[in-house]
Design brief:
Layout: H1 12-20, H2 25-37, H3 42-59, H4 66-85, H5 87-95, H6 106-109, H7 118-125, H8 127-139, E1 144-146, H9 147-150, E2 157-159, H10 162-172, H11 178-191, H12 200-220, H13 229-241, H14 245-263, H15 268-283, H16 287-305, H17 310-325, H18 329-347, H19 352-367, H20 371-389, H21 394-409, H22 413-431, H23 436-451, H24 455-473, H25 478-493, H26 497-515, H27 520-535, H28 539-557, H29 562-577, H30 581-599, H31 604-620, H32 623-641, H33 650-665, H34 669-687, H35 692-703
Antiparallel strand pairs: 1-2
Helix pairs in contact: 1-3, 2-4, 3-4, 4-5, 4-10, 5-7, 5-8, 7-8, 11-12, 11-13, 12-13, 13-14, 13-15, 14-15, 15-16, 15-17, 16-17, 17-18, 18-19, 19-20, 19-21, 20-21, 21-22, 21-23, 22-23, 23-24, 23-25, 24-25, 25-26, 25-27, 26-27, 27-28, 27-29, 28-29, 29-30, 29-31, 30-31, 31-32, 31-33, 32-33, ...
Length: 741
């Protein structure tokens, strides 16, 4: 490989050099590379090494490790030779100390033209100069190419060994240079892409390790960053895009302080940082702080730029997002419509920013129960984004995710699962497993598994999402609390009532602190506690919870909102449990009429109420009416969830079991056996042969007592609704909604 390998080792000077370097592979490799390119003997190298070592002892007396001293002396000899051959190569190696050791490429260095150093200017002026400089470093073994990292985005990168990088930091840069530190930060910040650039997230991921080199010096002011506010703001953008909210907040706060001092409160650059800081606060669940930032930015931008400027409309759209998070749906709709109209006029119907607002309106319509309007918005946004950005762009994936959420609410579970899996794969590739967007999709898959009756898989998804949210966002963020709630739902569905109650109380306390006691998300937890109290037989406590939730939702959402109707339906279930059958019937009919208007006749939530009415009619002795309801529910569930025989979805198995009960009460023994047999096969497939339902049906069939069997003893567990409108979970027919972002 070089002169230090093979027969040359017989040379006494070669042996002496190997002994001097103590056999350290990296030191030997560097020395060998030097000797390959310089007409020098082993004796010459030994002499230069000793001279360099004496200098190193004088200038770096803190080097305690003999191995370090050997390496550093070897590299110093090589560095001196490189500097004589190409001063730009030497300066590149010195500048490398201010970047990460891995993945430096020309695109990063090209922004280093803002310096008085002529050799660094030479590196930055064109790629040929950079390639010539880095080639020499590679030839001497100090730098190596990294083609795999380079494939992420743009051209290939180069790296140095960690020991070499330490040497460049502590020896070549014995006196740390603020100028070089600012220059390196300029390079990184200038390379942060806008999100309309192709595969921008991959480039951002390349930059993260280089940004980390400067994070501490920015926040602790160990380097003078005056005049670098623009770069710090760009670093904030990078962290925000990558879901690193604490780091983004620190950067924006630092940039804002500098911009206010240098430019004033009303400067457009200052307002840009104010707006972005509002976005960070919003994502952190600090909604009051976010609203203050957005209002400050909006007021300033309206005065400085006008009502229809793109920056003004950006803040209008952001306020819409915030109002939606706060449950102020009317205010959110007004903001979105203002932003949409302005963006259509200023940017056009097909611009990606216009399509972002279209997508947001779809999210809002879905929360308002306007399913058809929501689907129309998503379809428009998705078609536009596919053409403008491609299938794998983050913004396109966001709309796919929204459409998957809608399909879940519409009971189109196969389509929803396909959407979520596509989104999850895309986010994993683009952002990684720990990014909040990836976690959102894991969460949504958990909710979908609940719909499908896969409770163990749902619990796994929620637990995975919860751990990720806690690390990324903290214990009190709304996304964390949503997951706590739905993990409680999963426990309740599996009969783990103590664990469920602990989760609900944790979520309720968190929502009260974060959003207030009257927020719809808080009220959804109150609703879920009511359902849990029914499971525990605490009917008085359950009634108090439902009434509290219902009154709050009426004020916040109105009587016809699907969330309000969920609590109406739950009150009906409670009244039935208390034997108040007339009151229960009134509640169910109110819920059914509202759901048919808001969600269509075959939506799963509508069918849930049909099923509940069937149970109530059976209890009242109205067997014909009950049979009509159960048959409608069964056929509807099969049509929506799948026509398998036996059904593989719990909602379809519930009315099938009760139809068997009705047939028994009316003397149709063959039909009883058919219903129970199919229901048993379904429960066994979904829940396993040892489940309560499977054992009960098997006992009935074995005892051949179907003709005298009374109504099923299974309890309908009501509708646990919404997570972010908090999801519904139960073993019977009601289901959760998926998360809206």
């Amino acid at each position: 490989m070089n002169k230090l390998n093979g027969t040359d080792k017989l040379d006494p000077d070669a042996k002496a050099l190997v002994a001097k370097l103590d056999g350290l592979p990296l030191a030997l490799s560097t020395a060998g590379a030097y000797l390959e390119h310089v007409n020098a003997s082993f004796a010459d190298y030994l002499r230069l090494y000793e001279e360099s070592w004496l200098k190193l002892q004088t200038t770096s007396p803190t080097l305690s490790s003999y191995e370090d001293r050997s390496l550093y002396s070897t590299w110093q000899v090589t560095f001196d030779r490189i500097r004589k051959q190409n001063a730009a190569s030497a300066q590149l190696l010195k500048l490398w100390a201010y970047f990460d050791k891995q993945d430096v490429w020309f695109g990063l260095i090209r922004h280093a033209h803002r310096t008085d150093d002529k050799w660094i200017q030479k590196l930055a002026e064109d790629e040929l100069n950079f390639n010539e400089a880095v080639r020499l470093l590679c030839e001497y073994g100090l730098v190596h190419p990294e083609p795999i990292l380079g494939q992420l985005s743009g051209s290939a990168g180069y790296g140095v060994h960690s020991c070499v990088h330490s040497w460049t930091t502590f020896v070549l840069n014995r006196e740390w240079s603020d100028d070089l530190a600012r220059l390196a930060l300029t390079c990184v910040a200038s390379e942060v892409p806008h999100t309309d650039v192709d595969k921008w997230w991959l480039l951002e991921q390349r930059l993260l390790q280089h940004v980390a080199k400067h994070q501490n010096s920015i926040t602790t002011a160990t380097v003078d960053m005056k005049g670098m506010e623009w770069a710090i703001h760009k670093v904030g953008n990078l962290y925000l895009d990558q879901g690193k909210l604490a780091e983004a907040e620190a950067m924006y706060s630092q940039a804002l302080q500098g911009r206010e001092e240098a430019l004033g409160l009303k400067h457009t650059s200052t307002l840009r940082t104010v707006n972005n800081l509002g976005t960070v606060y919003s994502k952190q669940g600090k909604l009051a702080e976010a609203e203050a930032m957005y209002n400050q930015a909006l007021q300033g931008r309206e005065k400085a730029l006008g009502l229809k400027h793109a920056s003004t409309l950006e803040t209008v759209n952001n306020l819409g997002n915030l109002y939606a998070s706060q449950g102020k749906l009317a205010e959110a709709e007004a903001m979105y419509n203002q932003a949409l109209q302005g963006r259509e006029e200023a940017l056009g119907l097909k611009h990606t920013l216009t399509l972002d607002t279209v997508n947001n309106l779809g999210l809002l319509y879905a929360r308002q129960g306007k399913q058809l309007d929501a689907e129309a918005m998503y379809s428009r946004a998705l078609q536009g984004k596919k053409k403008a950005l491609g299938l794998k762009h983050i913004s396109t994936l966001e709309t796919f995710n929204s459409l998957g959420t809608l399909y879940s609410k519409q009971g189109k579970l196969a389509e929803a699962e396909a959407m979520f899996n596509q989104v999850l794969q895309g986010y994993k590739e683009a952002l990684g497993l720990e990014h909040t967007s990836t976690l959102d999709t894991v969460y949504n898959l958990g909710l979908l598994y609940v719909y499908q009756g896969k409770l163990a898989e749902a619990e796994t998804m929620f637990s995975q999402a919860l751990q990720g949210y806690e690390e990324a966002l903290g214990l009190k963020h709304t996304s964390t609390l949503n997951t706590v709630n739905n993990l409680g739902n999963a426990y309740a569905a599996q009969g783990k009532l103590a664990e469920a109650e602990a989760m609900y109380n944790q979520a309720l306390q968190g929502y009260k602190e974060a959003l207030g006691p009257k927020h719809t998300s808080t009220l959804n937890i109150v609703n879920n506690l009511g359902l849990l109290y029914i499971d525990q037989g605490k009917l008085a406590e359950a009634e108090a919870m439902f009434n509290q939730a219902l009154q709050g939702k009426k004020k916040a959402l109105g009587l016809k909102h699907i969330s309000t109707l969920d609590t109406v339906s739950n009150l009906g279930m409670l009244y039935a449990a208390q034997g108040k059958l007339a009151e229960a019937e009134a509640m169910y009919n109110q819920a059914l009429q509202g759901r048919e208007e808001a969600l269509e006749r075959k939506h799963t939530s509508t069918l849930d109420t049909v099923y509940n009415l069937g149970r109530l009619y059976a209890e009242q002795g109205k067997l014909k009416e009950a049979e009509v309801m159960f048959d409608r529910a069964l056929q509807g569930y099969k049509e929506v969830l799948g026509p398998e025989s036996p059904p593989s979805h719990l909602p379809a198995l519930n009315p099938m079991t009760f139809l068997g009960d009705l047939y028994a009460r009316t003397g149709r023994e063959d039909a009883v056996k058919t219903m129970y047999t199919q229901a048993l096969a379904g429960y066994t497939a979904v829940q396993g042969p040892s489940s309560e339902c499977s054992r009960e049906l098997e006992a009935r069939l074995q005892a051949l007592q179907v003709s005298s069997s009374g109504p099923s003893t299974r309890e309908q567990q009501g509708h646990r609704h919404e997570s972010s409108e908090v999801g519904a979970l139960q073993i019977s027919s009601s289901k959760p909604s998926t998360r809206e972002q």
